[in-house]
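Consider the tokenized backbone below.
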């Protein structure tokens, strides 16, 4: 799979809008390195607008790594992050695209998944404000702003939520293996019939 960052037209238009908001911000633009050590503690109370993009290998996501079978060197996620302020409130646009393999629930062989996720975090001052944030917006999520926001964990949460509950190969691809397995196993009734002889 060729991991080209967010190349379709609608994504590009949305990114241009976010770029405009970031560039028109009175806050200075600060580069955000897409590296686990930097993403573990992002200061969302700082008067800056963050921008960054890069690749995070699957091995840097501990919970995702346990879901994956196996973990390949090309498995991981491209991330693109932009933040800006609106009404003195920080917002962060997070776009995630990548691939990983999980176990098929039918045949247990690896099943490749390609995921694309877009989320906007709205950072609020208190837990009460976050609790009152409208829950009917799938694309926006309320977070409590802090000086040590764990963005790496938030990205991993979004990917985990995007995984299918019971991933399976298309029926035809697994059925062949099931039929082969059935052919290899002796019929228990034939075994009993032979024992009677």
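A designed sequence for it:
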């Amino acid at each position: 799979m060729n991991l080209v960052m967010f190349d379709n037209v609608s994504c590009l238009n949305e990114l241009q809008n976010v770029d405009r908001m970031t560039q028109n911000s009175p806050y200075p633009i600060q580069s955000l390195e897409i590296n686990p050590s930097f993403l573990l503690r992002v200061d969302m109370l700082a008067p800056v607008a963050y921008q960054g993009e890069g690749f995070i290998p699957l091995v840097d996501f501990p919970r995702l790594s346990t879901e994956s079978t196996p973990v390949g060197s090309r498995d991981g996620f491209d991330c693109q992050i932009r933040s800006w302020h609106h009404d003195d409130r920080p917002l962060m646009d997070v776009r995630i695209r990548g691939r990983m393999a999980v176990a098929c629930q039918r045949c247990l062989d690896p099943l490749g998944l390609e995921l694309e996720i877009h989320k906007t975090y709205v950072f609020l001052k208190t837990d009460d404000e976050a609790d009152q944030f409208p829950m009917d917006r799938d694309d926006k999520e309320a977070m409590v702003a802090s000086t040590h926001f764990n963005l790496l964990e938030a990205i991993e949460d979004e990917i985990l939520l995007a995984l299918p509950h019971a991933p399976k190969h298309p029926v035809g691809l697994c059925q062949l293996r099931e039929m082969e397995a059935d052919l290899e196993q002796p019929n228990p009734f034939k075994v009993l019939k032979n024992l009677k002889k």
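The first helix runs from residue 9 to 23.
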